[in-house]
From TrEMBL:
Record's protein name: Phosphoribosylformylglycinamidine synthase subunit PurQ
InterPro entries: Class_I_gatase-like, PRibForGlyAmidine_synth_PurQ
Active site feature: C86 (nucleophile), H194, E196
Transmembrane region(s): none
Name of a matching Pfam family: GATase_5
Subunit structure as annotated in this protein's UniProt entry: Part of the FGAM synthase complex composed of 1 PurL, 1 PurQ and 2 PurS subunits.
CDD domains per UniProt: GATase1_FGAR_AT
GO biological process: 'de novo' IMP biosynthetic process
Pathway: Purine metabolism; IMP biosynthesis via de novo pathway; 5-amino-1-(5-phospho-D-ribosyl)imidazole from N(2)-formyl-N(1)-(5-phospho-D-ribosyl)glycinamide: step 1/2
Keyword tags: ATP-binding, Cytoplasm, Glutamine amidotransferase, Hydrolase, Ligase, Nucleotide-binding, Purine biosynthesis
Example of a GO cellular component annotation carried by this entry: cytoplasm
Xref: NCBIfam families: FGAM_synth_I, PRK03619.1
Biological source species: Salipaludibacillus keqinensis
C-alpha cells in the first residue's frame, strides 16, 4: 500500500507522518509537494499538521487553493482514504471536504499535551483496529482546535455516525467535545490530535499506530490481500 504525505509551505509534521508510515507501519510512503497536480499511484493521502502559509487569514484558508487540492478532492471522490491531522483537518474543512469550521481555542492559548480520546465509531476504515468505546491517549498541539458547526450539521454528523473521536475532557471548547469527524461516505477523516506522534511507547503512547494499521487492514480487505 502506498501513502502520500502532502507538504505545504509551513507544514511541520510531515516528517513525523513519514516516519510513522515508513518505520512504524512499514508501508511505502512519499512526500508530495503542494504544487504537484497528480496523486496517481497513491492508495491513501495524508495531510499533516503545521502552519501552512503561516496560518495567515485562517488556518488552512490559503492551503485550500494549492494545486494538489484538486487531486485530493478527486481521490476523496473515488473513495480513497484521506486523513487530515490538525492543520490537515483545518485544510479539509476550508476545502469543503468536511463540514464545519475551526475556531481559536476557547481560552485563546496554544495547547500542547497528551489527551484522552474516546473512539465513538470503530466501524470506520480508520478505526477498525480499536475496541468499541475504547479510550486512547494521543497528543494535541494547536491554537485553533475549537470545532464548530451549526445544529443541522451536528444532527447529521451524529445521525450518520460521523463523529469518530471525542475528547475525554473538553480542552478547547469544541462543540460536543468533538475531536475528529469523517465525511458522509466515511473515507475522509479530520482530527485535531496527532496519531503520528503516538506510534511508539517511547513517545508516551503507541495508540496512534492502530489508526494507520486500520487503514492498511481495510485496504487489504478491499484488495483481497490476506498476508
Ligand atoms: N500542529 C498543528 O497542526 C497546528 C495547527 C494550527 N496551525 C493551529 O495552531 O491551530
Amino acid at each position: 500500500m502506498k501513502f502520500a504525505v502532502i507538504v505545504f509551505p509551513g507544514s511541520n509534521c510531515d516528517l513525523d507522518m513519514y516516519h510513522a508510515i515508513q518505520d512504524e507501519l512499514e508501508e511505502e510512503v512519499s512526500y508530495v509537494w503542494h504544487d504537484e497536480t497528480s496523486l496517481e499511484g497513491f492508495d491513501a493521502i495524508l495531510l499533516p499538521g503545521g502552519f501552512s502559509y503561516g496560518d495567515y487569514l485562517r488556518s488552512g484558508a490559503i492551503a485550500k487553493f494549492s494545486p494538489i487540492m484538486k487531486a485530493v478532492k478527486e481521490a476523496a471522490n473515488v473513495g480513497k482514504p484521506i486523513l487530515g491531522v490538525c492543520n490537515g483537518f483545518q485544510v479539509l474543512l476550508e476545502a469543503g471536504l468536511l463540514p464545519g469550521a475551526m475556531r481559536r481555542n476557547e481560552k485563546l492559548t496554544f495547547i500542547c499535551k497528551q489527551v484522552g480520546l474516546k473512539v465513538k465509531n470503530q466501524k470506520t476504515m480508520f478505526t477498525n483496529s480499536y475496541g468499541e468505546g475504547e479510550t486512547i491517549t494521543i497528543p494535541v498541539a494547536h491554537g485553533d482546535g475549537n470545532y464548530y458547526c451549526d445544529e443541522q450539521t451536528l444532527d447529521r454528523l451524529k445521525k450518520n455516525n460521523q463523529v469518530v473521536f471525542t475528547y475525554s475532557e473538553n480542552i478547547n471548547g469544541s462543540i460536543e467535545d468533538i475531536a475528529g469527524i469523517t465525511n458522509e461516505q466515511g473515507n475522509v477523516l479530520g482530527m485535531m490530535p496527532h496519531p503520528e506522534r503516538a506510534v511508539d511507547i517511547l513517545l508516551g503512547s503507541a495508540d496512534g499506530l492502530k489508526l494507520f494499521q486500520s487503514i492498511v487492514k481495510h485496504w487489504r480487505k478491499q484488495h483481497a490481500i490476506t498476508t
